[in-house]
Amino acid sequence: MRPSAARLLNILVPIKRAVDYAVKIRVNPQQTGIDLNVKHSMNPFDEIAVEEAVRLRERLKGAVASIKVVTIGPAKAAETLRTALAMGADSAVHVELPDSAPAPEPLGVAQALRALVRREAEREGGGVDLVIMGKQAIDDDAGQTGQMLAGLLGWGQATFASKLDVDAEGKSAVVMREIDGGSEEMSARLPLVVTTDLRLNEPRYASLPNIMKAKKKPIEKLTAADLGVDFTPRLETIKITEPPTRVGGGKVASVDELVAKLKEAGFTAV
């Protein structure tokens, strides 16, 4: 039996445009950051989040009302939103920043997402029931936004998820999460913030028909002012340099020669 409209779930998936994982990172000539004139793509952990949202809709068979993706970034970030729409998301929100603006810090992003969640709650169709997002972005590796968002909203959180089961009728979820030395199973009530780990799924490739369909799906454009958020950084990067070049190793012909070289280097037996 199809769930009633009042019980349908709305899923929000924040995504980020980041330097492609296959690109060799280089410091820019000004030593103020990395060279951004390279290929960009969706943050891999966010791809997993989009995939999991689409799989939830497939598994729950009619219990998911909408999957909305959101990104905060320059105009080019719209390409990343189109990728998520081609994967199966229904609509998108682009909080557009000037090309020259620094990347928002995790707290600023969490505050913007909180404002967006509250904004969605005022719309017809109900608010957000589930936020699924990557556990971290591969550019800054902060891994903080999901936890901050849950704290700001006063929602439960399940981080580093490797398995997610949602009970749409009971408005609850069971999450298997990665922890040091193994895994942990936990249950939580919706609304909930879930951050995704690598083992959760393998994202699908968008088919050509879905890529074409994605061009017709709506993307709502907002500004930081629309959400009442200030993205001014609290931290200042003074200088970035590349690590020193690693010195090549050498070969030894015997154990005795190895021991002698270790002694020369100042290592002594314990």
UniProtKB/TrEMBL annotation:
InterPro entries per UniProt: ETF_a/b_N, ETF_b, ETF_beta_N, Rossmann-like_a/b/a_fold
Cofactor: FAD; AMP
Annotated cofactor note: Binds 1 FAD per dimer.
Compartments (UniProt record): Mitochondrion matrix
Role summary: The electron transfer flavoprotein serves as a specific electron acceptor for several dehydrogenases, including five acyl-CoA dehydrogenases, glutaryl-CoA and sarcosine dehydrogenase. It transfers the electrons to the main mitochondrial respiratory chain via ETF-ubiquinone oxidoreductase (ETF dehydrogenase).
Family the UniProt entry places it in: Belongs to the ETF beta-subunit/FixA family.
Name of the featured protein: Probable electron transfer flavoprotein subunit beta
Organism of origin: Mycena rosella
